[in-house]
Design goal:
The complex is a heterodimer of chains A (841) and B (448). Chain A is an alpha+beta fold and 841 residues long. Chain A has 27 helices and 28 strands. Chain A has five domains: 130 residues, E set domains, domain 4 (Immunoglobulin-like); 95 residues, no CATH class; 83 residues, Immunoglobulins (Immunoglobulin-like), CATH 2.60.40.10; 135 residues, no CATH class; 153 residues, no CATH class. Chain A is 33% helix and 14% strand. Chain B is an alpha/beta fold. Chain B has a single domain, classed as Alkaline Phosphatase, subunit A (3-Layer(aba) Sandwich). Chain B contains 14 helices and 16 strands. In chain B, the strands form five sheets. In chain B, strands 1, 4, 5, 6, 7, 10, 11 and 14 form an eight-stranded mixed sheet that branches. In chain B, α1 runs antiparallel to α9 and α12 runs parallel beside α13. The N and C termini of chain B lie far apart (45 Å). Classes of the chains: A alpha+beta (841), B alpha/beta (448). At the A-B interface, β27, α20, α21, α22 and α25 of A face α8 and α9 of B.
């Protein structure tokens, strides 16, 4: 059979199926196919609609072993000029001979040993065949508790956190959360309650089964039908005398979803199949036993049978599949239908890899980019993003006068070399490294650590080295300030969790108490990470030059919280580390983290910085880089990470790469066709100025610097050494308190208190009406015309000239007021309260 | 001043940018009422005390359901606890002895003894929204009832925010949640009258109202950036708040409502002060005054007041705690019901008093009760409901709902119903344009 790759089918004219007009043939495929089918047509073959089985990776068709085996068919329909579509549920299936198997709802169910052909027929006349072998239906295999029974509990939600999976169990019956401890579950089920939960003599009388079908009242209601595959498996397991498992039972090593990625039309659907691969090299279909979750239920949902239903939105969506602690993801791109976008809609000759990836994505979705922003917009945007401040008048004038072709690149370089860049990014890192004072005044430790961070940024210390010096910090605050991180983040668990979230984008907290439900991380992984930190000690109250944080050299270990087993240190997904007698274990952790092969390190940083500049992370939240939370543009994230590693972890180079891209320089104004885009970067997404930047900008515009207790006059808010300075303004505009390693602690939300403060507070009014302030100066200045003064205000506030309408409105206003100083105060007030001022756009 | 009044109608314009909402199923007869229509209708009808409102009293930590409104007299001593039931003025209904004043007005209230569907987290989210925290999380989550009502109805009085959160900050932060706006966006957050912000509610720095209005006119002329390009929604949020801030400044209604020195001292005394604060730890204090403040705020035009009362997480000394918190709650809650009735507001104002879950039947070795999300309880009063009843029951040991399990969402649906919102028909479009129902379940049939 496998020698016949094609089957011609008769031409059919169906006016309601436009794509079929070009029908010339069909492809019948049982030859070796990759798990992800190629799109379009196969080399040299006639182009025409084809029906294709997607989930067959054996040249000899598919083998089902035992009556419990299943195969979820996934059949695609491919036609020239059309997106591949899922036809699984539009087909009529038949099995020849029919005694071997039947197909129910796209799923093959074995009946008897033998070989058969499964035929799928489409109403158009297209068809495809699949060779099927059924074996071992005669001898009933022992049902494995961990392999067969536990997945049923997980699928039905019995062991979820809201039911029997919670720490205390439910109604006296406890299961391990999501079935990660099958041996415990077995003991609870079989041995507890004097064995009344199971009755091998009369399996259907078992409490387990009666509760599941609700024939004995069950708080969780009916979870199973009497006439279901799962019910029969449970009953058979009981009747077999509740075997645990064979000694040599293979375990799941990975799962895969078929297909992995598709471009689909909005409001279409896609059947998924999930395959589990076992340690003995075998694999089986577990589609019905796996759990599914969409990462955006507004775009798509997925039912318990693995059928994804797309809604009417354009963009990308991911569906997570989970089985036995393993996870994988199906990704779908949903392009604009009948988009007018072509290759010509995009700028040509882009050598920046950022643009290649951004525009490839936009093109594939049919979304056009906004045009490139003008110079004034770029100047303000990039100065705010790199230096955390608005441009000076001199900068605005100079940039406008500069006619050279590379002026934007040179501006970026100039900003990156500035002190302001170091101040701004030091503040960013300072906050998430939790450099926080313990109340009261500023402490030496806070200042020293902030200064160290700032110096690292100013000297462009390679990021890997920066992280290493924190993670492996030893000594006194005076000799090596990053030990402050160890003082602030004071227990081992917090250190592990902060370090993995900050530097690897992994939230491993879950694995402290149980297997991470949406990741592969187990308690062993957590314990092995903690082993790097267990030999860290602190000394307090000594001479400031003595070491305050140090680690005992030589091997270290940690105990598994459940088994008590002693575990050696290891990175995530990495081999155990052998620590030499004279080594600090943490230096090995830093080695693993910063190695160019580390799968998390560079991506986590790239995504964090991408979000800083582009307003939205490729992964959101920016420090949650789960397998099951895939980036909106994976190629772009890979490309950024690779460029970052290749540059030697050069942070400035990464910023250059982003800010010099055409994508960063897109206008924020939306086109009709891209107003709906919120994650593909077809335009620049405006960002609110963060609290400190806004306060500095107001100070600069009004010429009234805010003073901060203990800081020299003229200190900018972005340059403060910690977040403990008392300021209602900064608090109400969302300054974080540095209590977590998460950037999300900074609130960028609007509220009434902010509006009241900007519109009507003593603080703002004081700045407007200060005797040494801008309004007083302008009112007193007799040498210039009002127009000149107003042009200057626009230049300082927005880095641009006022348009005629604005100039007229402000001139009229100033002319209409007797009190000139108040008139200028009012103009300043209006500028500060306008969206253009409050946003970076 | 004139121009300020002119601005008031501009509020509607400000909202219109977000797109007026059709609320077809409302009790105004024919469909097609826009939000603006509705607000105008309300303005014409007068806005004294006639609007419907909700006071949502969250008992953070989870009150022991078996020590509140249903004493398990038949349970063995390790479950029963030390409280005795007392008779109420409704024959056949008995509640815990720590609530003598509430017992004397049982006819004005209803207790639900069999609340189910609690998610089990230590947070107010479910009592504020009716939903689990993760629901619609990717688009911001479900809005709290106060936010949804702000969106649907807008303010009663333009100077008074329709949704106010009085919950004081707690160390365990989710207990001082006053309700997140979820997918509705920041504009629908509850207003929190925190200390430092209060000063900003009156004109500062010698600026007169006329001058402020001149400033606003100028701002309107030059503030022309397109709002819909902001994917976070913050620009539109700022517009709405800017208008709201101006309303606050032109009227002192909000400030007055928050100022208890303007209240009759006898009334203040009747509510009590809930002091000394005991068993507070990382939770909310027992601020009896907040219930009085809630009444004053509703009189001023607030539609939903959310507050957090006490810390009921009684892992130890459960009975001492309930005696303390319960006694104080008895005083202020009975005062509130009495007060609302005297003012003719009780039929318009629904009071709900509940926590995130119930507590373990078995008393632990520290005389405490631990978390128990299989069953919980709620106390409701006013709102034109059929009061004087006890709904549902738990089994002998108080472990689970025996009769008439009432889901958290049914109670939330009842609150919406009492506000005049038909949850079976009213939807709010989420950011993707999809209409979202407020809750999935029907109101509690016994109450309406």
């Amino acid at each position: 059979m496998n020698a016949v790759p094609f089957l011609r089918v008769p031409f059919l004219h169906r006016p309601d199926a436009r794509w079929l007009a070009a029908l010339i043939g069909a492809m019948l495929c049982f030859t070796s196919l990759p798990a992800v089918e190629p799109e379009g047509t196969t080399d040299g073959l006639p182009i025409g609609p084809t029906l294709r089985f997607n989930n067959i990776n054996s040249a000899n068709g598919f083998t089902l072993s035992g009556l419990d085996a299943r195969l979820q068919l996934v059949v695609s329909l491919e036609a020239a000029g059309q997106l591949v579509s899922d036809a699984t549920h539009q087909l009529i299936y038949s099995v020849d001979p029919p005694v071997i198997a039947e197909v129910i709802d796209g799923m093959v169910v074995p009946l008897a040993d033998g070989e058969a052909i499964v035929v799928a027929r489409h109403e158009s006349g297209l068809s495809a065949e699949l060779k099927l072998t059924v074996k071992h239906t005669g001898n009933e295999a022992l049902i494995s508790f961990p392999g067969r029974v536990v997945p049923i509990f997980t699928k039905l939600g019995c062991n979820s956190g809201g039911c029997h999976g919670k720490l205390a169990g439910q109604n006296g019956f406890k299961l391990s959360l999501l079935g990660f401890e099958p041996q415990e579950d077995y003991d609870h089920l079989v041995r507890e309650s004097r064995g009344r939960r199971l009755s091998p003599a009369a399996p259907v009388q078992s409490l387990l089964l009666q509760k599941a079908v609700n024939s004995s009242p069950h708080g969780g209601g009916q979870r199973l039908d009497l006439d279901s595959h799962e019910y029969r498996i449970l009953a058979r397991w009981v009747s077999q005398g509740m075997p645990y498992s064979k000694d040599d039972e293979p375990s799941v090593v990975s799962i895969e979803v078929i297909p992995q990625h598709r471009r689909l039309n909005a409001e279409s659907s896609q059947q998924l199949a999930v395959l589990a691969n076992y340690s003995d090299g075998s694999s089986e279909d577990v589609t019905r036993a796996a759990l599914y979750e969409s990462n955006d239920s507004e775009m798509a949902d997925c039912n318990e049978k693995g059928l994804v239903n797309l809604k009417d939105l354009v963009g990308d969506v991911a569906v997570m599949a989970r089985y036995q602690g393993h996870v994988t993801v199906f990704r779908a791109d949903i392009p604009v239908s009948e988009s007018s976008v072509t290759a010509d809609s995009f700028p040509k000759e882009l050598d920046n890899p950022v643009d290649q990836h951004v525009f490839a994505k936009l093109q594939s979705l049919g979304i056009p980019p906004s045009p490139r922003c003008d110079d004034a917009t770029f100047l303000r945007r990039v100065t705010l993003d790199i230096a955390g401040r608005t441009p000076t008048q001199a900068e605005t004038t100079g940039f406008r006068a500069d006619t050279s072709g590379d002026k934007r690149e040179r501006l970026v370089d100039r900003l990156l070399a500035s002190e302001d860049y170091a101040d701004y990014f030091a503040g960013k890192w300072n906050t998430i490294l939790r450099n926080r004072r313990e109340g009261g005044g500023l402490k030496f430790a806070n200042v020293a650590f902030h200064q160290w961070i700032r110096e690292s940024i100013a000297t462009n210390k390679p990021y890997d080295q920066f992280v290493r010096e924190i993670v492996a910090a030893s000594g006194s605050v005076a000799s090596h300030p990053p030990v402050v991180w160890y003082q602030q983040v004071s227990d081992t668990n917090q250190r592990i969790e902060d370090a993995t979230q900050l530097f690897l984008g992994q939230r491993i907290q879950c694995a402290r108490c149980h297997h991470h439900p949406y990741e592969k991380w187990s308690q062993s992984d957590y314990a092995q990470l903690s082993a790097f930190f267990t030999s860290v000690s602190k000394k307090n109250g000594r001479d400031p030059l003595e070491p305050a944080v140090f680690a005992k050299l030589g091997s270290s270990s940690a105990k598994h919280p459940k088994t008590g087993q002693t575990l050696k240190p290891a990175g995530l997904d990495a081999a155990e580390v052998v620590i030499g007698a004279r080594d600090d274990p943490r230096s090995h952790l830093a080695d693993w983290m910063t190695n160019s092969d580390n799968p998390f390190f560079a991506k986590a940083l790239a995504n964090r910085y991408w979000k800083h500049f582009m307003g939205r992370g490729l992964v959101e939240p920016e420090d949650d880089l789960r397998v099951t939370n895939p980036p909106s543009n994976p190629e772009l994230l890979d490309g950024l990470a690779k460029a970052f590693v290749d540059s030697g972890h050069d942070l400035r180079a990464l910023i250059r790469l982003i800010t010099n891209s055409r994508s960063y320089q897109s206008d924020s104004d939306a086109l009709r066709e891209n107003i709906g885009d919120k994650r593909s970067y077809s335009r620049f997404y405006p960002k609110r100025l963060q609290a400190e930047v806004l306060l500095d900008a107001i100070d600069r515009l009004t010429l009234t610097p805010t003073s901060f207790a203990g800081m020299p006059p003229g200190s900018r808010a972005v340059a403060l050494p910690d977040t403990g300075f008392s300021s209602y303004f900064l608090t109400v505009f969302g300054r974080p308190e540095s209590t977590t390693a998460c950037e999300c602690e900074r609130s960028q939300e609007a509220n009434l208190s902010q509006s009241l403060h900007l519109l009507n507070s003593e603080e703002i009014q004081g700045k407007l009406s200060s005797d040494s302030g801008r309004a007083a100066q302008l009112a007193a200045d007799k040498s210039r015309s009002d127009e000149e003064k107003l042009r200057e205000l626009y230049s300082i506030a927005f880095s641009r000239d006022p348009v005629d309408r604005e100039l007229k409105a402000t001139l009229t206003y100033v002319a209409g007021k007797e009190n000139r100083r108040e008139a200028f105060e009012d103009v300043l007030w209006s500028l500060i309260n306008s969206k253009e001022f409050l946003f970076n756009h | 001043m004139l121009s300020i009044l002119g601005q008031k109608s501009q509020f509607c314009d400000g909202v219109s940018r977000r797109g007026f909402l059709k609320i077809g199923g409302l009790s105004f007869g024919a469909g097609g009422f826009t939000l603006a229509d509705l607000m105008r209708a309300e303005a014409v009808a007068g806005k004294s005390h006639s609007h419907k409102a909700v006071i949502n009293v969250f008992l953070g930590g989870g009150p022991p359901h078996q020590d509140m409104w249903e004493i398990k007299t038949d349970a063995p001593s390790e479950v029963r606890g030390e409280f005795k039931p007392i008779k109420t003025n409704v024959p056949g209904i008995e509640i815990c002895e720590v609530f003598p004043q509430l017992a004397s007005m049982m006819d004005k209230a209803a207790v639900i003894r069999s609340v189910v569907g609690c998610a089990g987290g230590h947070e107010a989210h479910q009592c504020l929204t009716g939903w689990n925290k993760n629901d619609l999380k990717t688009i911001g989550g479900r809005p709290a009832i106060g936010s949804a009502v702000s969106k649907l109805f807008g303010p009663v009085d333009a100077s008074v925010p329709p949704n106010i959160g009085l919950a004081k900050p707690t160390k365990h932060v989710p207990w001082s949640d006053s309700g997140h706006p979820g997918f509705l966006g920041a504009a629908y957050s509850p207003f929190k009258p925190d200390g430092p912000g209060m000063k900003n509610m009156t004109l500062n720095g010698g600026v007169t109202m006329d001058r402020l209005s001149d400033r606003r006119k100028l701002l309107k002329n030059i503030d022309s950036m397109r709002r819909d390009i902001d994917i976070t929604g913050a620009m539109e949020g700022m517009d709405v708040f800017g208008q709201r801030a101006l309303d606050v400044l032109t009227s002192s209604r909000l400030l007055d409502a928050l100022d208890l020195s303007k209240e009759d001292p006898k009334v203040v005394e009747r509510y009590g002060d809930g002091k000394p604060y005991q068993y507070q730890y990382d939770g909310a204090p027992t601020c009896n005054e907040q219930l009085l403040m809630a009444r004053r705020l509703i009189e001023a035009g607030v539609r939903v007041v959310s507050l957090s009362y006490g810390r009921w997480d009684s892992h130890s000394a459960n009975f001492d705690l309930v005696r303390d918190h319960g006694g104080k709650l008895d005083q202020c809650l009975s005062a509130l019901i009495e007060d609302l009735e005297q003012r003719g507001m009780l039929d318009d104002v629904t009071i709900v008093v509940w926590g995130e879950f119930g507590r373990t039947p078995k008393i632990n070795d520290k005389a405490g009760r631990d978390h128990w999300n299989k069953v919980s309880c709620a106390y409701l009063a006013g709102g034109g409901m059929r009061t004087g009843q006890a709904i549902g029951s738990t089994n002998r040991l108080g472990e689970e709902a025996a009769e008439r399990p009432v889901h958290v969402q049914e109670i939330m649906a009842t609150l919406y119903h009492n506000l005049g919102i038909d949850t079976a028909t009213v939807t709010i479009p989420d950011p993707t344009g999809r209409p979202q129902y407020l809750v999935d379940r029907e109101p509690v049939g016994e109450l309406i």
